[in-house]
Amino acid sequence: MASKGLQSFAAGMILAVSVCGVVYYTTDNSSVGAEEATPAVQEQTEEELIGQLQESGYVVQTESEWKSQLEELEAAVVERVAAELEAVEEDVEEADTDSEEGDNIVYRTMLTVSPGMTSIDVGRALESANIIDNARDFFNEVEKRDLSNELRPGTFEVESGMSMGQLIDIIF
Question: Any residues with CB less than 8 A from the CB of 167 and at least 6 apart, and which?
Answer without folding.
Answer: 126, 131, 132, 138, 158
